[in-house]
Amino acid sequence: SLASTAITCFTRGLDLRKGTEDVLCPANCPLWQFYVFGDGVYASLSSVCGAAIHSGVITNTGGAVRVQTLPGQESYPAVNANGIQSQVLSRWASSFSVTAGTKSTALEAVGRSVSTARPSTGKRPKKTLDKKAGNKDCKADIAFLIDGSYNIGQRRFNLQKNFVGKVAVMLGIGTEGPHVGVVQASEHPKIEFYLKNFTATKEVLFAIKELGFRGGNSNTGKALKYTAQKFFSLENGARKGIPKIIVVFLDGWPSDDLEEAGIVAREFGVNVFIVSVAKPTTEELGMVQDIGFVDKAVCRSNGFFSYQMPTWFGTTKYVKPLVQKLCSHEQMLCSKTCYNSVNIGFLIDGSSSIGESNFRLVLEFVSNVAKAFEVSDIGSKVAAVQFTYDQRTEFGFTDHVSKEKVLSAIRSIRYMSGGTATGDAISFTTRNVFGPVKDGPNKNFLVVLTDGQSYDDVRGPAAAAQKAGITVFSVGVAWAPLDDLKDMASEPRESHTFFTREFTGLEQMVPDIIRGICKDFLDSKQ
């Protein structure tokens, strides 16, 4: 009997070469990620294992499947079955059907894949336990952005796959070690597999081996931007607090511009490395749009994030130094962004001139600013103090470690009503709210919201807050005197002072405040 070929969750009908093929589907494929078109007869674009589960041939525990190639159909219906919603497709050039594979073929395939395991000695070797966890000292979520353009060509594409495989092995992938995924850059980017699809080196190697060469222009900029925006979501397996890294492999030079993609990646807190292979020679330079393409895209142009290999041949010696870079997480300067590395304290005027309904608008403003930040125990933090002549800490920086809890705490703030002592309130907040976090890693910001003249001096307390490392934004409404607002604000005062006649005008200021915080954060990092 024929031996089965083990395939991945994402292998499509059109990736198989024979008219009839026995394949082995892995267990635990994520059902919602399957692309399946049709019912019974599936368009060859469909995932083979997805079609097999959809038609009931196997369950999500995987198993042997026989795939039969069929002619194309005029249309493929959408049917929901066994947890998979297939999709409609009109007219496709070829199709396939799936039936249960035979046991003997499955066993042979299993025998083949298990033969690499150690012979049993009765005692369970200690190593295997750690192997599953992977290299715990290497904290990284990595996207390998491989070059699938005509620049590299089929032959070197295979050498590139070998190199990425060697890097994957040496990284020590595992449940508690690094996680990796692959995106192929060509005319259009394609995510080949996500971080969460595989947590064992063996599976990753298999998936890399299966990658097909796409060809097309090397639109690396387009692929880099797409990867920075789409690849690292929590639902795709990115982990909180673990550095996000994109390793861009580039043969020659890109067909498009990398600058904008580099900016987007930095904004999203992604560390971009560029591995450039066979960089343009003197006679090719005329064809390169931008000779400085590497420095435009990398996280920082300090030399750490760029890596050169003269050719794709004989690259083994380049594996270890690259892995060492990818695993040194204290060097990942782009992981910290203004969204995940700030403490924002809101000082909210609760005086009687505001009134209940306007007070709600103030809280809405506070919520909308807070919403933009990634609040977590290792990320950004938010606190709120309400003041009249007195001060009341509504919640401190360590009280709520998720965005949901912060937003619900803001909603439940009750209006105090009373006088206005803004200076005292700033001193109180500097001491009691920022005091406990002043040696922490986050940058500190205070947003003061007031609608009137303060009865006490604001200049002294604001200067003291700034001296303690707190950047102050002042937001005034209605009768708040501009002099007071300017006296409280950090330098340059123009960009840290905001004013609106009406409470309804607060809404328009939200993006400016967020941008201001991010600008200050970035300036402090230069």
UniProtKB/TrEMBL annotation:
Keyword Glycoprotein: yes
High-level lineage: Eukaryota, Metazoa, Chordata, Craniata, Vertebrata
Annotated LCCL domain residues: 3-96
Annotated region (Disordered), positions in chain: 111-132
GO BP terms: sensory perception of sound
Keywords, in A-Z order: Disulfide bond, Glycoprotein, Repeat, Secreted, Signal
Matches recorded under Pfam families: LCCL, VWA
Location relative to the cell: Secreted
PANTHER family noted in UniProt: COCHLIN (PTHR24020:SF36), COLLAGEN ALPHA (PTHR24020)
Protein name in UniProt: Cochlin
InterPro entries listed in its UniProt record: ECM_Assembly_Org, LCCL, LCCL_sf, VWF_A, vWFA_dom_sf
